What we know:
Blueprint: H1 6-24, H2 30-51, H3 59-90, E1 99-104, H4 110-122, E2 126-132, E3 135-140, H5 148-158
Amino acid sequence: MTGDGTLVKIIATFGILFAFWAMLSTYFDAFHLIGGVICSAIVAVLSHDLLIPGRRAGVIRKTGRFIFWYVPWLLVEIFHAGFDVAYRVLHPSMPIAPSIISFDTGLSGDVSRTVLANSMTLTPGTLTVDVEGGVYIVHSLCPTFSRDATMQKKVAAVFEEKE
């Protein structure tokens, strides 16, 4: 343990985990309470930096932007894409030309890359097949469904990365 507040992070993580465990548990005898304490302590030691990262990470700002700016935008995109897919399926003259699209992104963070991959998969008509480094392979119902440019810009803005 170093003097950078690691012990405080572990204790705070333990408190949150044990409170969550107690809230979900229906057994409050000694055996189950001790088991909850032991499990919460082990998980807190191993993963305290995931729940409470360093101050320089800007987690609160990024989380706020993700929840209040990106998620509503993504929900609207999912809604529009769902109607577009339904229209293409039901209308015989609309083109459906499945294709595999590969593109490279400038996103460097694991979380931002994961958010981009999952966002494309959640949007009807596209499916992220593989991600290796910054290269995405996406299956698209039709070539115009490739929303990677707009989504990539949004994700880069949320996680403060250059695209």
